[in-house]
């Protein structure tokens, strides 16, 4: 599903943007408008995804991200992008602010801990994100919170559903690489696994006739780890077919 992000036309007149090289401007614009962005400006993004989407060389992407970090415009932490002034430039209503708090509550603790070291992270404090990120669940009084806040805090400890795992899998190149590495360790050719993985993704993400769902979403249940093992086991000439497990651990 497409998402709308607000980009002011003054973007091109901004003093910092005008100081950048053309490819740096292109990269910066991508970081604030790509399909993985979240309202909070904090989201998972692999550098390889940037290379794939923009066509820029990896060296250019790495240099650009490093420059933006030195200039305190963002932080890139273990595959998570943290855009400093993203929320400042969004036209937020109350529901959107609640959505941001919900997003931030789902950020892994190890990432949240590293955010403490960012001097400028307080620029988000008007949304009270610090308390969501940095308070441990054991220190929170659920009896004093609203029903919505209780559901949000309790959801942090719930296991992701198969649908949530699949949605993440389709976006997360690291998860896809894990599958490739696993099958290579079982004697499969890397090029073959990558090829089959792309076929698997293309097949299961084909839109239905009305365009409202993808093929995998029409299934009663869809565990991507089991489905791909079955997919690989059905390939003619598959090596070590009998030794394959029921599912790949991601």
Descriptive report:
The longest helix has 15 residues, at 190-204. The two termini are 25 Å apart. The model is unreliable at 123-128 and 130-145 (pLDDT under 50). This protein has helices spanning 15-18, 22-33, 47-54, 58-70, 94-105, 109-115, 129-134, 147-155, 162-171, 173-185, 190-204, 224-233, and strands at 42-44, 74-77, 80-83. Helices cover 48% and strands 4% of the residues. 16% of the residues are buried. It has a three-stranded antiparallel beta sheet with strand order 1-3-2. It is mainly alpha-helical and 250 residues long. The radius of gyration is 21 Å and the shape is globular. The protein folds into two domains: 9-155, no CATH class; 162-243, no CATH class.
Kindly list the characteristics that best describe this protein.
250 residues; mainly alpha; 2 domains; 3-stranded antiparallel sheet; 12 helices; 48% helix
Gap between N and C termini, in Å? 25 Å
Please list the strands of the largest sheet in the order they lie side by side: 1-3-2
State the major sheet.
Answer: 3 strands, antiparallel
Topology pattern, helix = H, strand = E:
HHEHHEEHHHHHHHH
Helix content: 40-55%
Radius of gyration: 21 Å
The tally of beta strands, per DSSP, is: 3
Rough shape? Answer: globular
Q: In the residues, how many domains can be counted?
A: 2
Strand content is: under 5%
Mean residue pLDDT? 78
Helices and strands: which structural class?
A: mainly alpha
Number of helices: 12
């Amino acid at each position: 599903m497409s998402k709308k992000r607000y980009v002011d036309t003054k973007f091109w007149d901004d003093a910092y943007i005008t100081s950048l090289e053309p490819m740096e401007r292109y990269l910066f614009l991508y970081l604030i408008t790509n399909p993985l962005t979240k309202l909070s400006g904090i989201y998972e993004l692999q550098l390889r995804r940037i290379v794939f989407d923009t066509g820029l060389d990896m060296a250019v992407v790495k240099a650009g991200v490093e420059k933006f970090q030195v200039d305190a415009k963002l932080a890139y932490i273990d595959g998570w992008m943290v855009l400093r002034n993203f929320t400042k430039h969004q036209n937020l209503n109350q529901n959107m602010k609640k959505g941001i708090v919900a997003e931030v509550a789902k950020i892994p603790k190890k990432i949240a801990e590293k955010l403490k070291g960012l001097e400028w992270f307080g620029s988000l404090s008007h949304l009270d994100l610090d308390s969501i990120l940095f308070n441990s669940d054991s220190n929170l009084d659920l009896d004093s919170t609203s029903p919505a806040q209780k559901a949000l805090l309790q959801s942090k400890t719930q296991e992701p559903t198969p649908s949530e795992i699949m949605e993440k899998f389709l976006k997360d190149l690291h998860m896809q690489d894990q599958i490739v590495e696993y099958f290579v360790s079982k004697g499969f050719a890397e090029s073959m696994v990558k090829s089959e993985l792309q076929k698997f993704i293309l097949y299961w993400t084909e839109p239905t006739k009305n365009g409202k769902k993808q093929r995998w979403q029409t299934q009663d249940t869809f565990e991507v780890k089991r489905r791909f093992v079955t997919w690989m086991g059905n390939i003619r000439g598959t090596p070590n077919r009998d030794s394959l497990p029921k599912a790949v651990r991601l």
